[in-house]
Amino acid sequence: LEGYAAVGADGPLLSPLTMNQSRVMPFGSELMYLPDRIPLLYDLRRTCITAVDDNPHTPGQPIFPVAVFNSPGHVVTHACAYKERQGAGLLPLFSYGAVGWRHGKFHSATACVDDEPRQDLRRMPLAGIQAGVRNMRRQLPHNRLRVHLERCALVYGCPAGKNFFLGRYEAPLPTARTCNARCLGCISLQPDGCLPSSQDRITFTPSPREIAEVALAHIEKVPDAVVSFGQGCEGDPLMAADTITEAIRMIRAHTHQGTINMNTNGSLPEKIDRLLAAGLDSLRISMNSVRKTCYEAYFRPNGYVFEDVLATIALGLAHKSHLAINYLNCPGFTDTPEEYGALVEFLARYPVHMIQWRNLNFDPLHYLRIMNDIARHTCPMGMSRLLEELSRRFPALAHGYFNPPKSNFRVKENR
Known about the structure:
Layout: E1 4-5, E2 7-10, E3 13-16, E4 23-24, E5 30-33, E6 37-43, E7 48-51, E8 66-69, E9 74-76, E10 79-80, E11 82-84, E12 99-102, E13 105-108, E14 110-112, H1 126-139, H2 144-154, H3 159-166, E15 170-172, H4 208-219, E16 226-229, H5 241-254, E17 259-264, H6 269-278, E18 282-287, H7 292-299, H8 306-318, E19 322-329, H9 337-349, E20 354-359, H10 364-374, H11 383-393, E21 398-400
Parallel strand pairs: 15-16, 16-17, 17-18, 18-19, 19-20, 20-21
Antiparallel strand pairs: 1-6, 2-3, 2-10, 4-13, 5-8, 6-7, 6-11, 9-14, 12-13
Helix pairs in contact: 1-2, 1-3, 2-3, 4-5, 5-6, 6-8
């Protein structure tokens, strides 16, 4: 829009995007315009930020804010800047990064934390996926989990499902039909009908043998293979811990190769000992915050409390397992001094090996309202500065996006 520049939002802080604050939009990112919202733009002539509700060059023509859903491995540093119209509904379950246009290309406000091409769509040819599906049908003709993963790969376009059939990197092992959290941004179940879920949750619990067959099919042909419980198309895997424990025993009775990982909310520490003893190699614990009130406001636990999550983390560290937190970040909350200070204290007490940075897939303004209602937050420090400060204070702490194979584990303490 000639005469105006793109603006990024870091909570209450609004600023025009600069080349230093952005990078060429990563391949695989998706653009979307936001209905019921007015873009906040920087007026180059008046040198101020203003709400522009229709095209100033063609009066009466509506315009909309444009946001970017960045590809994996890129942390949103500024959210799309906009003002809600009266009665605006909640945005669907995506993250909404700031994006601008310069020199013939889109530029997004991101910091790259993981450049591994594990989910690069250019490396996932449809013909190769279809060939892998045919091969797996022959290899595992009666396996229900294999059938479920076909739908993940071919209908939902799940990159983890695609990688299984392509025989590369990490394979998903969805198992749990239920969950004991009611996350605001749950992508597989939205029972109140306010938002559509992004995908259907698995409707059955695979048997230990079905799980082991899929895992071994992957481990036996992929160098440094990773197989993971806890996917977007299921509840929390700890709800199926008995089945998973038996499946891990079957896998480990056959091979000690490959990395068995679990992505979980960490709510049931009493289940962890048996899983680790059976051969689970790594744990990734999902958290939006390391503060009890903010965590429970988002996860809305049903039958557990925040202290249970901390107990699971302590158990994982005591077992010398690789432990990561899946940190759901949102500019204007994650980079506030209050959340940063709590994170520093958390990392000093619980020296986890890795933070996996995930952009929170939830309406950003609605999320900030919820968090600000329950805790005081002062001026954000900026997501880029936050990453720099954490790297300086905890040099052994890994930052990334994907679950690493055990050949890449960091086991040093982060103090």
